[in-house]
Specification:
Blueprint (H helix, E strand, L loop, with lengths): L36 E5 L5 H11 L2 E6 L3 H11 L4 E3 L2 H5 L4 E6 L3 H13 L3 E4 L7 H13 L4 E3 L7 H12 L5 E9 L9 H4 L4 H6 L1 H10 L5 E9 L11 E8 L3 E7 L7 E8 L2 E7 L7 E6 L2 E6 L4 H19 L7 H20 L17
Length: 375
């Protein structure tokens, strides 16, 4: 065995100096002049964050539809007092002056609404997860293309400050090609106890939550195709809710690997860490939660920098998704959060759930549907 003097197992401390913080444009963008009339369909809890941030952006929401009209009225009065309210979404879609609709209901209810919105010649921002069947998703993508419409997905995690900075930094080549990505999250999600929408969702972690991490993994690993995936989900005695609180996943590429570890029942000492190691450097973000990642670090051969981050997930994220859709309409290009792009994220998610359900390796792209229950 070597001694400490041999330097066995010790780094030579390359890049231990300080460098200037690289200028990376990671904040949400919005159009220069395009500000269309927007309609919101679905006034559930998440819609509050949508409208709060649209108001901050100066966007023009003119109509809100929800089958329980009182919910639409409450949101209208809180954010857009002049907006019209409807209990039938078709009435909203019949309004010719509305160009963009934000559709927030759950996937089963959302699919026919998206179809009707496209038939009504509206650009669409769909809530995540986009669809539960890849073929249905591809059909919607084709339908939008045939009508010359933009169809985007509200994968708002892409604009969380730390994820957005990392995504854009990778594009500059500052850390070279990513060879490993590690997500390690320990958080307290016991607030879902006795809430049927979550208690009845077996893969609450891998599906409802981790969809954001599958999505950002696709962004980080752009240009590299996943070859296989292995995932697991574990429930333990003493949990306060029914779905497994522990989950993990390994995604293999030809020359890279993405690893995810989740504990959604961390009552003390919550932490969220993301580390991306590339061929030329490393990016790392650490904080007590996904909405609280105040700084991140960049390590290169020239040295390291601590990057102050502006904003938070629940602000930047919701501004980023709609802002990118509107900007893509103004510039007549595909949005970076297009439904077509998001299908790659769903391929990872569906394959991970297939793997966890059957305790075997799955191939992304070969699992076409979301399988909710363990076989």
């Amino acid at each position: 065995m070597g001694s400490k003097s041999d330097g066995y197992g010790l780094s030579d401390k390359k890049g231990s100096g300080k460098i200037e913080v690289p200028k990376i444009n990671f904040l949400p963008q919005k159009p220069r002049s395009y500000n269309p009339k927007i309609g919101l369909i679905g006034a559930g809890g998440i819609s509050d964050y949508h409208l709060k941030n649209y108001k901050l952006m100066g966007l023009d929401v003119v109509a809100i539809a929800n089958r329980t009209l009182s919910k639409a009225v409450a949101l209208r009065d809180k954010y857009y007092p002049k907006a019209k309210v409807y209990d039938d979404y078709q009435e909203l879609l019949n309004l010719d002056h509305i160009e963009v609709v934000d559709i927030t209901p759950h996937p089963e209810d959302r699919l026919p609404i998206i179809k009707e919105a496209l038939r009504s010649n509206k650009h669409v921002l769909s809530q995540k997860p986009f669809v539960l069947d890849l073929d249905e998703g591809r059909g919607l993508v084709q339908m939008a293309k045939e009508r010359g419409l933009k169809l985007a997905v509200n994968q708002n995690g892409r604009w969380a400050p730390h994820f957005s900075y990392m995504r854009e930094a990778i594009k500059t080549g500052i850390i070279g090609r990513p060879v490993s990505v590690d997500f390690s999250l320990q958080w307290d999600q016991t607030w879902i106890e006795n809430l049927p929408a979550f208690e009845d969702l077996y893969h609450m972690v891998l599906f409802d939550f981790a969809i954001h991490w599958f999505d950002i993994a696709v962004c980080f690993m752009q240009g590299q195709d996943p070859k296989s995936i292995y995932a697991s989900a574990i429930k333990y005695d003493g949990q306060k809710y029914s779905p497994p609180a522990l989950a993990s996943c390994i995604i293999n590429y030809d020359q890279a690997q993405v690893r995810m570890a989740f504990n959604a029942h961390t009552l003390l000492g919550e932490e969220d860490v993301t580390t991306i190691v590339g061929t030329k450097g490393t990016l790392r973000s650490r904080g007590p939660g996904l909405n609280d990642q105040p700084t991140m670090e960049i390590f290169t051969e020239k040295g390291m920098a601590r990057v102050p981050l502006e904003g938070c997930w629940f602000k930047n994220g919701f501004q980023g998704t709609m802002g990118e859709l509107l900007l893509s309409i103004e510039e007549d290009r595909a949005p970076s959060n297009s439904a077509e792009n998001n299908l790659k994220s769903l391929e990872l998610c569906f394959a991970a759930i297939e793997s966890a359900n059957h305790n075997r390796v799955a191939i992304p792209g070969q699992v076409m549907k979301y399988e909710p229950n363990r076989s």
